[in-house]
Amino acid sequence: MTLFKTTIALGLLACSGAILYAGSTQSQEEGSFIRTSSTSFDTDFTEAAEKTVNEVVCIKSYQARRQNPYGGGGYDPFGMFEYFFGQPQPRQQPQQRRQHQGEDDLVQAGLGSGVIVSEDGYIVTNNHVIANADKLEILLNDNSTYEAEVIGTDEATDLALIKIDAKGLSPITFGDSEAVKIGEWVLAVGNPFGFTSTVTTGIVSAKARSLGSNSSNGGNLGIESFIQTDAALNPGNSGGALVNLKGELIGINSAIYSNTGSYSGFSFAIPTTIVKKVITDIRQYGTVQRAVLGCTIRELDAKLAKENDITATKTGLLVQSVSPRSTAKELGLQEGDVIVAINNVPVKSRPELVEQLNKFRPGENVSVSYYRDNKKQTASATLRNNQGSTEIKRPGEFSELGCAFMKLSAQEKQDLGVRSGVKVSGLRDGLFKESGVKDGFVIIDINGIAVNSTDDVERLYSKINQEDDADKVMILSGIYPKSGRKYYYAVNLGGN
Length: 496
Prior knowledge:
Layout: E1 5-9, E2 12-15, E3 18-21, E4 24-26, E5 33-35, E6 40-44, H1 46-52, E7 56-64, E8 75-78, E9 81-83, H2 94-99, E10 106-116, E11 122-126, H3 127-130, E12 135-139, E13 145-154, E14 159-164, E15 185-190, E16 198-209, E17 226-229, E18 241-243, E19 249-257, E20 266-271, H4 272-285, E21 295-299, H5 302-307, E22 317-322, H6 327-331, E23 338-342, E24 345-346, H7 350-357, E25 365-372, E26 375-382, E27 397-398, E28 403-407, H8 410-416, E29 422-425, H9 431-434, E30 442-446, E31 449-450, H10 454-465, E32 473-479, E33 486-492
Antiparallel strand pairs: 1-6, 2-3, 3-4, 4-5, 7-10, 7-12, 8-9, 9-19, 10-11, 11-14, 12-13, 13-14, 15-16, 15-18, 16-17, 17-20, 18-19, 19-20, 21-22, 22-23, 23-24, 23-25, 25-26, 27-28, 28-29, 29-30, 30-31, 30-32, 32-33
């Protein structure tokens, strides 16, 4: 293993016939160097590197031959933001494609990284690393290999929890991502381009960085609060560890900003405050329990402050509207209030607010500090989910709708001749059954918007529920697999 040790020289001065270096001096008479310690500093990365490489794994994703083995790499949902899954196999190398073909007719579709979080084999990685995989092969730093099962995924935060049948593993120690400071040294550990156990280093460039606000699609990501670093990351690093000099995990590497698909100086990691909450929820409940305030907000700037006669604060989140049956309503928030803190933690931007709320579950209490008429107030309330409930949600379930939703595989979409869709499963008494929907119905779109996952359905369901003036109706468009006939259903969410 390569050991890293960097000595940084701070300057060069000329004085009285002698050359003076920050860190060393040379005497003209003796012609020798005398090293000093007052003008240089050493940063030792070896301890963190040696520890972390044994806690990061390589993940190889395989897909059946019927699927496109070249489509798994480097998709780009945000224009120049690259969610680096791994490198697709070059089309001009058919021999490489056949190399990964096994008894089950599988081909390698991509390569990423993961972080061991428990002694008994739980591993956290990015959702896009394991998405659409028919088989996951895990390579540890000691060259032992295992097949992994998917415990749960969360598309909104791009996180997934998988497990291998192993004992006595070396789990990583979680650090506090909120305590990380801009300018602090960090190490990134992963498997770029298949080079296993690779360590790169850099500094924290920014915190609570939003990718969505800079993206061409207006920002569709459930998490907007990334740690930005200049540690060199490339395809294959996705799902790997970002650690501090103690070797403590402070983030899961997830994205780079690039025009080419390779590293260009900007890397982004999901902070551990979010990672811990997501993987704990997946293990305990099978899905992530999300709490929301239930109000629309806008980041305060000088123009907004002047327009609203706000003089008590220069930063915060200006409340624009409040939804009924929401935490914001219970808090007593009104249009024109400026939110400045959650549980005494300052929030100056939307990403910072998202990060704080992601730490809590529906049913937990939270205090919100805000300004109204330039006077600071604090109120407490019970957090709710997007449906205005404090109940624990199970995977793919919406109690009011009375069903769960199953994601379609690539083969099912091909057989049905559709590009999107989710299947209604486990139908029971609820709004869907009342509207005539039957078990097995494949929903292609809701209100004209394509759906591909439970998260897509949940976002549209929540959006419709939060509309005050419009009719709360879900227009379902889809087909029944057996007949292939297209049907439309109107599901009234308003209760009228």
